[in-house]
Amino acid sequence: MTIYFASDHAGFSLRQTLLAHVQAAGHDVVDLGPAAESSVDYPDFGVKLATALQQDDAGYGIAICGSGIGISMALNRFSWVRAALVSDPLAAALARQHNDANVLALGERLIEPDLAKQCVDHFLDTEFEGGRHQRRVAKLSQIGEK
Question: Who is most buried in 3, 44, 92, 135, counting CB within 10 A?
């Protein structure tokens, strides 16, 4: 499984921490940037992550900005992305289990690195349950088509 990472400048430090954490767990990672902490626009990196996931439907994403709100809003503009902004491990697991989220969004200014690591672990270790949830998830992709 490949995990794609993207952030803006406000999520740079947490992105570096989580990249190392996910690599240490044995996952393949792709760092979509930015390369430095200088100011950038989160929509640009949301588009990069969405594009990567469009080309790799088995991949997952981790998106980080200051609050996690902006980058998750940018990502959820794409019908193939289901980005979930979470702040605790249970929400991360439920985002996968019930919503088949393919992107975990985090806010560097709102979550401690150790808790963020736990969220990532729960997100990556949880499978989509399917069943009754599949119909609902399918409707999410149809919303933008109307």
Answer: 92
Written as one letter, the residue type at 105 is A
How far apart are the C-alpha atoms of 102 and 62, rounded to whole Å?
9
pLDDT digits (tens, 9 = 90+) for 39-49: 999 999 999 99
For residue 17, the surrounding DSSP H or E stretch is helix 12-24
Evaluate the CA torsion angle 56, 108, 45, 140 in order and state its sign: positive
In 8-111, where do the E strands start and end? 28-31, 60-65, 83-85, 103-107
Q: What percent of the chain has pLDDT over 70?
A: 98
The model carries a pTM of: 0.95
Q: Which domains does the chain have, with CATH numbers?
A: 2-143 (3.40.1400.10)
